[in-house]
Amino acid sequence: MNIGLLRFLGFGIIDALDIILVTVLIYQFLKLFRGTRAPYIFIGVLIVIAVGVLAQVLDFPSLSWIIDAVKTIALVALVIIFQPEIRRALGLVGQRPFFRGLIRESVPIDRIADASCELRERGLGAIIVIERRMGLREFTEEAVPLNTEFSVPLLISLLLPDSPLHDGAVIIRESTILAAKAILPVSRNLPPELYGTRHRAAVGITEVSDAIAIVVSEENRNIRACVGGRLSAPLSKEGLLSFLDRELGNA
Predict the structure, then answer these.
(1) Contact indicator for 125, 164 with CB cutoff of 8 Å
(2) On the CB side of 221, how many CA atoms lie within 13 Å of its CA?
């Protein structure tokens, strides 16, 4: 075969591989940030870049000068705007299936479901956060440390209205209650007129980590679960068990 043809085919394969890799990276980027404001900001950035390229091609000096002037400032601003998403994306790298088998989770999902349902029946509100691969130390450090074996009666007692640990979230690691009265970041992606602080906080912790959050509503007497910044519909006990079983990889 002609050497020139071999080189052409070689460069063609490399170019095709390059395009495939870029496509996969963009897809994974958008998938990681699905359900947040990040894809819309990303699209806005692409539009601004396209306008900048068009200004240079058509030789619009004023528009080119403006874009060049704000370029550095815009880069810093983007890092600040995307800070929660960047932190979550970097943390999720270690969550891929390759690493999943290296980390064993022994979360007592049956007892967590029992506790959630009992809280619902009693009309008590709660946020139960289950730590996975990403540590939640920054939230447990500001909470009340417990480090005690998980039990349904203990969890219920922590969340009774007259308990000093009633407010905030309970954080669980495997079969241990790490901390109570934890303050969580509040999501800005749920409309406050439709969802209260408890639901927005439950979603917020899953936007900045790979944790699972269970939120029990005292007003609506229902249970919802959150993962990856997405809030589920109200769940029955069987639905909650299925959700936890699927997300924790115990199936």
Answers:
(1) no
(2) 4
Q: What is the maximum alpha-carbon separation in the chain?
A: 84
Instruction: Count Cα atoms within 13 angstroms, Cβ side, for 138.
Output: 6
Given a contact cutoff of 8 angstroms between Cβ atoms, the answer to whether 225 and 240 are in contact is yes
Residues 6+ apart with CB under 8 A from 12: none
Q: Closest by alpha carbon to 215, among 228, 194, 231, 229?
A: 231
CA distances to 46, 73, 151, 220 from 80, rounded to whole Å, are: 18, 11, 40, 36
Per-residue pLDDT of 48-65, as tens digits, reads 777 777 777 777 777 777
What's the rounded Cα separation, in Å, for the pair 11 and 20? 14
Averaged pLDDT score across all residues of the chain: 79
Query: C-alpha 96: how far from its chain's center?
Result: 14
Residue of 195, 143, 188 whose CA lies nearest to 169: 143
Helix (H, G, I), strand (E, B) or coil at 181: strand
The token pair at 104 is 């064993």
User: How far is it, in rounded angstroms, from Cα 128 to Cα 137?
Assistant: 16
Alpha helix locations (H) across the chain?
Answer: 3-32, 38-57, 61-81, 83-93, 97-100, 109-122, 137-140, 152-158, 197-207, 237-247
* Cα separation, 78 vs 231, whole angstroms: 26
